[in-house]
Design goal:
Number of helices: 12
Largest sheet: 9 strands, mixed
Order of helices and strands: HEHEHEHEHEHEEEEHEHEEHHHH
Helix content: 25-40%
Low-confidence stretches: 1-8
Structural class: alpha/beta
C-alpha cells in the first residue's frame, strides 16, 4: 500500500527466453550458474548462439557444458575460471581446443580465487586479498601472461605477510538457473550454490531462469531459501528442463546418453558444427529442442527420485 492507502502492483519481470537473452550485448562479461554437469544454463546458451552474440567473456568457478557450447560456437574471447569438465563424460573439449589454438584467453585461477573476485565486486571493493595463490604457477601465469592487470602482490601493513590482491570482478550479466522464482524475481535454489550468491550480488544485471514461476506467497512461506531477492533481478524466464542435459537437484538427473553424444561430437570441430546444426540452430526454441532429445517420455525418465534428489 502507498501512503495514500492505494494498492500497489508488484513488478512482473517474466519474459521469454529470447527477450531475456537480448539483454546481453556483444563484449559483455557473463557469470554462469552451473558447475560441471550440474545446473548449467544450457537453454540460455542455445539462445545466445541463435542470437549470434559475439566477443563474450565467461566467468565461473567451474565451467561446464553451457560455457563449452558458447566457446564451440565461436562467441567467446575470454574465460575467467577455476577449472572445468563434464564430470565422468569427459573434458570441456571446445574450451580446451580454443585455448590450444589461441582463439580464447584462458584467465585461469583457483575456484576460490574466482569466488573472491566476485565477493569484492559484491561488497563494492576494488580488490580482495587472498593467500592461496602464493607460490603457484597459476599466479605466475596470471602475472606474466593472461591477467597482469587483475592481480597484484603486496605486503600486509599490519602483519608484514605477503598477500595476493585480486581485482573485483563485476559481470555485466549473471545468469542463474533456479528451482523456482516469483514474477518479481525472488528466486529459490536447492542444493549446492557454489559461487552463485557472490556472482549475482556483484553483477550489474541478473537473469533468473526458473524451472517454475510460483506466486509470491509461496516464496514468503520460507524466505530463508531465497538466494536472490527480486530487487536485484532484471528478468525472469520460466523454462522447465532449461538445464538439460545437465542435472537439476530434486528435479531431474543428468541425461547420460545425450552427454555422451555431446562429448563424442565435440572431439572435432566438424562434430561441434553437426551438434549445433541439429540441436541449436535446428531447433526453433527450447521446447523444440526437448522434442529432439526425446520429448516428454525422455524428460519423465530423468525425473529425480524424491528422496535422493537425483
Amino acid at each position: 500500500m502507498t501512503a495514500d492507502g492505494l494498492a500497489t502492483t508488484s513488478p512482473n519481470k517474466v519474459v521469454s527466453l529470447a527477450e531475456a537473452t537480448a539483454l546481453v550485448h556483444d563484449g559483455d562479461t557473463i557469470a554462469l550458474s552451473g558447475f560441471a554437469c550440474a545446473r548449467n544454463a544450457v537453454a540460455f546458451s542455445h539462445e545466445l548462439i541463435r542470437q549470434g552474440k559475439r566477443d563474450l567473456t565467461l566467468s565461473a568457478a567451474i565451467l561446464g557444458m553451457d560455457a563449452d557450447l558458447l566457446v564451440g560456437a565461436g562467441l567467446v574471447t575470454r574465460c575467467i575460471y577455476g577449472g572445468g569438465s563434464l564430470d565422468r563424460f569427459g573434458p570441456i573439449q571446445c574450451v580446451n581446443r580454443a585455448y590450444e589454438q589461441g582463439t580464447i584467453v584462458s584467465e585461469y585461477y583457483s575456484s576460490l580465487a574466482v569466488c573472491f573476485r566476485y565477493l569484492a565486486g559484491a561488497l563494492g571493493l576494488p580488490f580482495m586479498p587472498i593467500r592461496s595463490l602464493l607460490g603457484s604457477d597459476l599466479l605466475k601465469r596470471l602475472q606474466e601472461d593472461t591477467a597482469p592487470d587483475n592481480v597484484r602482490l603486496m605486503e600486509c601493513p599490519f602483519t608484514g605477510e605477503q598477500l595476493v590482491l585480486l581485482r573485483a570482478l563485476v559481470p555485466d550479466i549473471a545468469v542463474l538457473h533456479v528451482h523456482m522464482a516469483d514474477a518479481e524475481g525472488n528466486a529459490r535454489l536447492y542444493g549446492p550454490r557454489w559461487d552463485n550468491a557472490e556472482a549475482t550480488k556483484a553483477a550489474r544485471q541478473v537473469i533468473v531462469i526458473a524451472e517454475e514461476v510460483v506466486p509470491t506467497d509461496v516464496i514468503r512461506q520460507q524466505p530463508e531459501l531465497t538466494v536472490v531477492p527480486g530487487f536485484r533481478v532484471n528478468a525472469v524466464v520460466e523454462l522447465p528442463y532449461g538445464a538439460h542435459p545437465t542435472s537439476m537437484f530434486r528435479c531431474y538427473d543428468q541425461d547420460a546418453d545425450h552427454l555422451r553424444l555431446y562429448s563424442s561430437k565435440t572431439r572435432t570441430e566438424a562434430g561441434v558444427a553437426e551438434y549445433l546444426d541439429e540441436y541449436v540452430f535446428g531447433a526453433s526454441d527450447h521446447y523444440d529442442y526437448l522434442e529432439r532429445v526425446g520429448g516428454l517420455k525422455r524428460m519423465l525418465a530423468l525425473k529425480a527420485d524424491p528422496i535422493l534428489g537425483y
